[in-house]
């Protein structure tokens, strides 16, 4: 700062641009290119991508130490999620496409066409979506809490000390089990959802069994089934990677584990919403013939 005048009348002169004096020891830090929240989200996405790559390598590289844990996790997922998925999908198929869409079709005098609408509602969209959200809420939270607890107790550090890779022994079997069991659970979910819609259409709205089944199978194609299987497999991989990543990054004691579980559920739902949106748009653009109700 430059000064003029007598010592009793010290009037500051405006400093020249680009020549402000900086006190020694206080250097101006460069401004970050990205905001802090966006940078954290990008770091998390990068960490999840790295974890996915490590998981794929662990699954493909011998020795396959994940085989026993894979079977255990498949049994656990089937026991934990089968009944909630069956009940929720059957109830939704009865009330959603069964009663709501059936009443709309009844006003047009075509309630017998409700079987064809089940393909769109259950097989292509909401059957897979509801299955993924239920699995994320039941199985995903369990995985995050288990891994977070092991991290807090330093069990993973003990495994590394003994020469055991936690990715191969813990993460890889859980991700693979979610991918496989999502396909299995979705097949059961589709049957339950269509059955709920059948009860609503035939038992409540007065459609005939023959017309319901005829329209359902006339509109069901192999493309629908294959696309549904691929989509739920992607959902399973997303749930596994997000939940395992949040569990491995847990810190701060029991409170930190609870926070990791909450973040895992939110992350899974956001990922499922986004992937479902993109996948559906691609599917309808690649196969426009599926949009025609036969």
Class per helix and strand makeup: mainly alpha
Please mark out the parts with pLDDT under 50 across 5 or more consecutive residues, or reply none: 1-22
Q: Give Rg in angstroms.
A: 28 Å
Task: Tell me the span between the first and last alpha carbons.
Answer: 82 Å
Report on the structure:
The chain is an all-alpha fold and 294 residues long. A two-stranded antiparallel sheet has the order 1-2. Residues 1-22 have low confidence and may be disordered. The longest helix has 41 residues, at 67-107. The radius of gyration is 28 Å and the shape is elongated. Helix 1 packs across helix 5. Helix content is 76%, strand content 2%. It has helices spanning 36-60, 67-107, 114-152, 155-161, 166-204, 209-219, 222-248, 253-286, and strands at residues 2-4, 11-13. Strand 1 and strand 2 (11-13) form a beta hairpin.
Q: What descriptors fit this protein?
A:
294 residues; mainly alpha; two-stranded antiparallel ribbon; 8 helices; 2 strands; elongated
Helices and strands in order:
Layout: E1 2-4, E2 11-13, H1 36-60, H2 67-107, H3 114-152, H4 155-161, H5 166-204, H6 209-219, H7 222-248, H8 253-286
Antiparallel strand pairs: 1-2
Give a quick summary of the entry.
With 294 residues, the chain is mainly alpha-helical. The chain has helices at 36-60, 67-107, 114-152, 155-161, 166-204, 209-219, 222-248, 253-286, and strands at 2-4, 11-13.
